[in-house]
Design goal:
Layout (H helix, E strand, L loop, with lengths): L2 E4 L6 E4 L9 E12 L22 E2 L5 E2 L1 H15 L4 E3 L3 H7 L9 E4 L13 E8 L3 E2 L2 H17 L2 E2 L5 E7 L7 H13 L1 H4 L16 H4 L1 H5 L11 H10 L4 H7 L11 E5 L9 E8 L4 H19 L3 H11 L9 H7 L3 H8 L11
Parallel strand pairs: 6-7
Antiparallel strand pairs: 1-2, 3-8, 3-9, 3-10, 3-11, 4-5, 7-8, 11-13, 12-13
Length: 366
């Protein structure tokens, strides 16, 4: 899986692969899913499934008598399963368990399990469902890091009965080590996402294209209203106006403001304000649109796409990028689709992967 882009300073082709990333891009994932459990007296509706659904949510008590409810028991169970397999993990805000395991909350190489109130955990067939969000540590983008994520997904699907329903998502964070991104890089990335939002929609199911937590950039951002404040209302299409507003931005704060949601209670599919303006917390760009999955190839290829867009914006000649975007800003997916986009930004392997995966299926136990 290679991506090629023109170096800003060299003006020549440079090959980007997961073993020699340039620049040192980082990424992390948030996996959302529902774990299925049964009481010991319950009949197993899937007796042929070797994964044991019993005893996962058993209410227990810590040594000091503190009650550990069923929700926290599930999250502890998952953390213990990962840790036993050599993947350090703990439950977020579970101070007693963190101390017992000898972890430090500042450890950035641990996976963390937590709850997500936006996930619908209601399930049928006699199961009890528990919503889980599993957050990875930040990884430098390289093949071993992708394999680490795949290992965790494999551990989850081999040990638990899991559903990824329509309320679940897959969030990918992309950063530039601890440095954040400069104005030019963020401006070109936001311009790419504005230009190719219809094409990116092609690889996501309908429920991830316009729900409260991943609103459309073109329809629900501050930029979507700014396009009506220009002087060329009658002569220039809205899409072109939006692109030129982005490319004309000259401060990081201005770019961030354009990408904010109009309704602050909602989220845009691409969250570009995560610590970039304050320098505090996760200094990342968050892609919120991915449909929840634990499929190894689907997750790894979506990570590649998220990182690939950032790399293209950060490591290409700005004039070349701007020309490419202006050429295709009015293209519809029918005549320039996501496969064409991925080839254009230097992701031929991902273009091939998604070429046969532009249809979607209902969730099932994975």
């Amino acid at each position: 899986m290679n991506a090629s882009a023109r170096s800003k300073d060299k003006g020549r082709e440079s090959t980007y692969d997961a073993d020699t990333p340039k620049p040192r891009l980082t990424f992390g994932v948030e996996l959302e899913f529902v774990v299925l459990t049964l009481n010991h007296e319950d009949h197993d509706p899937h007796e042929d499934d070797p994964r044991n659904p019993y005893g996962i949510d058993t209410v227990t008590y810590d040594e000091d008598g503190t009650k550990i409810d069923s929700e926290r028991s599930v999250r502890r169970h998952i953390a213990a399963t990962l840790t036993k397999a050599g993947v350090q993990a703990f439950v977020e805000d579970d101070e007693d368990e963190i101390r017992r395991l000898g972890f430090d909350r500042t450890w950035t190489f641990c996976w963390q399990t937590t709850d997500d109130m936006t996930v619908n955990s209601r399930v049928g067939e006699g199961y009890r469902g528990y919503s889980v969000e599993l957050n990875s540590p930040p990884y430098y983008f390289q093949q071993s890091a992708i394999e680490a994520v795949q290992q965790v997904c494999g551990l989850l699907t081999s040990n638990y009965r899991i559903i990824c329903n329509d309320s679940c998502g897959l969030h990918v964070h992309v950063g530039n080590s601890n440095e954040g991104f400069d104005t030019d890089t963020l401006k070109l990335l936001v311009a790419c996402l504005w230009t190719f939002e219809p094409q990116i929609n092609q690889i996501h199911p309908a429920h991830r294209t316009n729900n409260k937590w991943c609103r459309s950039f073109r329809m629900s951002s501050e930029l979507s209203t700014a396009v009506f404040d220009t002087n060329d209302m009658d002569s220039v299409p809205i899409e072109e106006r939006g692109l030129e507003i982005i490319l004309g931005s000259n401060t990081l704060q201005n770019v961030i403001e354009l990408a904010r949601p109009i309704d602050r209670a909602c989220r845009i599919r691409y969250n570009v304000s995560r610590g970039l303006e304050t320098g505090v917390g996760k200094r990342t760009i968050e892609y919120r649109q991915g449909a929840a999955t634990l499929d190894l190839q689907t997750i790894s290829n979506w990570i590649w796409v998220c990182v690939g867009f950032v790399f293209y914006a950060d490591n290409s000649d700005p004039a070349v990028v701007e020309s490419f975007l202006r050429k295709h800003i009015n293209d519809k997916p029918a005549n320039f689709n996501i496969v064409d986009v991925l080839k254009g930004i230097g992701l031929p392997a991902q273009a091939q992967f998604y070429s046969s995966r532009l249809t979607h299926h209902a969730p099932e136990i994975v």
